[in-house]
Amino acid sequence: MEQKISGKILFVSVACLVVIITIISLAYTCQSHFKNIVVSQTLGQLLTTAKTASHGLEEFVSEHSASLKALSKSQYIQKMAYNREISHPGQEGSCYTEFCPLKTLYDIQKSRESELDHLSISLLDAGGGMLCRQPYIKDRIGMDYTDRPGVAYVLREHRPWVSDVFYNALGNLAISVLQPLFYRDKFAGMLRWMTELNTISKGFVQSIKIGRTGYVWMINDRGIILSHPQKEFIGKPVTDLIRKGASDKGLSVDETGTKGLIQKRYGYLERLKTEKEGYGIYEDCLTGRDELVAFKAVSLGKTDWHLIIALPYSEIAGPINDHGYNMLGLAGGFILLLGLGGLALHRNRKRQVQLETETKYLREIDQSADALRESEARYRSLFEDSGDAIYINTKEGKFIDVNQSALDLLGYTREEMIGMDVRNIYVNPDDRSVFQQEMEQKGSVRDYEVKFRKKDGTQMDCLLTSSTWQGNGGRILGYQGIIRDITKQKQLEARVRQTQKMEAIGTLAGGIAHDFNNILMSITGNTEMALYDTPESSPVRSRLEEVLKAGSRAKYLVQQILTFSRQREEKRTPIQISSVVKEALKLLRASLPTTIEIHRDISAGADTVLADPTKIHQVLMNLCTNAAQAMHEKGGLLEVGVTDADLDSEAVARYPDLSPGPYVVLTVSDTGQGMDRSVMERIFDPFFSTKGPGEGTGLGLAVVHGIVKDYGGAIDVCSEPGKGTTFRVFLPRVDEVAMAEAEMSASIPTGCERILLIDDEKAVVEPAQCLLEHLGYEIVSKTSAVEALEMFRADPDRFDIVITDHTMPHMTGQDLAGEFLRMRPDIPIILCTGFAEPSISETAKASGIRELIAKPVAIHKLAETIRNVLNG
Question: How far is Cα 702 from Cα 389, in angstroms, rounded to an integer?
Fold first, then answer.
């Protein structure tokens, strides 16, 4: 007898070892999958940022090209170029008067984009000579500019030109845009707009913030670095820096060796030559670090720049490592589940942008009334037709003017707003003071986030961009700016973030549940086999029965995970709440410290509700776990009660979600630390948690609230700091008789037929084969679908029935069944699956498969299914 028991213990130990190895393998697979998701999402975000910045750069150059094209339509400019009139300040009718379109365009661009250093707009004649320049530099007037980038091209082709980068007279990198001029259909000259590359980088490259140490840099088609956080790199070929880096490491690299380094280590530099955009993980060519790299081409005329965003891999390594530790803990928890008979399984279930486009500034307001009226006439149309809300106010805060978009946004009439104090639209008047201080210190404010109040009292989130309006001597007279409503955008971003979180959790839950079914199949199969070989009087038998019972509970928990991941429909049946309470408290008692006392009070006369027992178990365990955590430091009393109540109209007035009628009331109370009102208002919000990092997901009470609401119930919470917390859950009571849990049939059908058993998991095949052989069947098992197909093809009449898993390498069970049926149409086939999606069930029956059963399947269920299929 002792030798027999020792043999069984050895068998169970080996089975446990197989399960442990399987769990560790699953944890490693999940960790690898999570790492791939984090890397993929981060690279996608970097590419989106690169696309946005690239588009901004292209729009910036395109806008200035359009401005030159519009200016080229001026007959005043055309005639001046055609007549080759050299212009100096002080001359009558020169380009430096307030009425000259060229000066007007220059003033507008400087007022809108004051950060553009060394901006210039020039007028060249048909021979490339300088006629006029804003700003005026005497020595440049009359100079021959034919050697400047693009000038010779426009003189020859009479077409617009956007230059590649070049060094200007100050020795700084710059770009230029040239627009041909025609007077009476004759080529008269050209307009030339130029600015330094550094100023463009400030607005579109250097302003991008990537993580803590990420950065953005830019090169052109010739490999010249145009922008980089390390200023000494700018203007140098990237290949020179690569060679220098190799030299610093004691390596001597020629041009051929440099190309080899780029292809082997810095592949993204090679991809820039053929791809407009892309991303990947590479060794950075300048720092030598592993980095996540995204790049996007910036198309400018006949040349391309390449915007490159780099984020050190170390910045995402933390979350990945944290997830790895979590997966290690999860694996350990399931191993503990096997040893303790299922207690740890419940614990493991707990484990579950902005680049805004540049705003435009209004033209500097001239104090002179005549100049103001002239400016008003020229730009009133632009002011009024703008889709953005534009305003002008005095330094004291009185509105002077607003456009129609501002009136529509705030809900006031023009008469109401002119003269109104701007503080009237601020939700928090202190924001106005902070804004004014920044304006006085910096002269302008970009994208200042603030809450405004409309006339009807509605609050909205806005971005405020403003500049000062100055008088003679630089004295600030007022402010002018743009208001942009971002309320819907912020709401949409919040919804998108929440949706992404829940989708990720659902996907992970579904994948884990699918693999756990195979694990549970091995556990329950081996346990049932051990039970068959264990005498009724053996003390081991009761322990094996507990393992089998825990496996059954785990099966229901996995089904709940599949419901959460939308891979299984919920099944509601009449159940007694008191039964769930007794079972849950029995599981909970072993996991709580002895300093916490549990008191149970079940006084309900009728406590039947229509629900999924697993969900009710989930509600109770979440509430009890939260209560226990509230008392983990000092201990206390955990009370769980079940009563019934008939609520009339007056009683349900406190609960808007309830209707009058009979209810079962589940009460969970503790003597812990309690909660204040601010915490109570948010306890049912997803991801809200008062616990420290790693101590909870913030989903427990959100899930409880969702389950109770779905069942037509309500939750009442009563708590005070230092006085504990009481949760009362109201669930509609039904008069139906609760269904008792099905007992395993005492008589299991047997047989002597020949069965081909196929599953790629050896831990599933072996116990199933032993159990079926115990029932009298002749079993041939295979862990390869290909091998099984070859065996069947050699002798199709050898077997009476086929049992196959659905998810296997190389060939699914459904495809394998199709091959069997083509060779022998009358062969009965049973398909096993880790999760039964409706589509699988429909297609399986349509293809000739007799039965579809879900893992894990008990031996009596499998035996009954086999017998039913064979008997027709």
Answer: 40
Number of domains making up the chain: 5
- The verdict on 765 and 862 lying in the same domain is yes
Q: What Cα–Cα distance (Å) separates residue 650 from each residue in 660, 692, 714, 729, 731?
A: 9, 41, 16, 18, 18
Tally of CA atoms within 13 A in the half-sphere of 592 that contains its CB: 26
| Angle separating helix axes 813-823 and 785-794, nearest 10 degrees | 10
Range of the domain at 171: 72-200
Give the three-state DSSP class for 304. Answer: strand
CB atoms inside a 10 Å sphere around CB 354:
11
Tell me, yes or no, whether 196 and 79 share the same domain.
Answer: yes
Dihedrals φ, ψ of 221, to 5°?
-60, -25
Pairwise CA distance, residues 301 & 175, whole Å: 12
Residue with tokens 């082709």: 157
DSSP class of 97: S
Q: Using the 8-state DSSP alphabet, how is residue 871 labeled? A: T
Quick one: 178 and 79 in the same domain?
Answer: yes
Query: Is there a domain that residue 701 lies in?
Result: no
Model's pTM, two decimal places?
0.38
Q: Is the pLDDT of residue 304 over 50?
A: yes
Answer yes or no: is pLDDT of 264 > 60: no
pLDDT confidence of residue 828: 94
3-state SS assignment for residue 728:
strand
d(CA 419, CA 412): 12
- The values of phi and psi at residue 61, to 5°, are -65, -40
Q: Do 145 and 175 reside in the same domain of the chain?
A: yes
For 377-416, the pLDDT digits (tens) are 556 666 766 778 889 988 888 898 898 888 888 899 989 8
Gyration radius from the chain CA atoms? 38
Domain boundary among 485, 520, 554: 485
How far is C-alpha 381 from the chain's CA centre?
A: 42
The 3-class SS string of 136-198 reads CCHHHCCCECCCCCCHHHHHHHCCCEECCCEECCCCCEEEEEEEEEEECCEEEEEEEEEEEHH
Kindly report, residue by residue over 28-67, the tens digit of the pLDDT.
787 778 778 878 888 888 888 888 888 888 888 888 888 8
DSSP, collapsed to helix, strand or coil, labels residue 393 as strand
The residues facing 295 across adjacent strands are 278, 308
Containing H/E element for 714? strand 714-719
3-class DSSP state for residue 556?
Answer: helix
DSSP state of 723: S
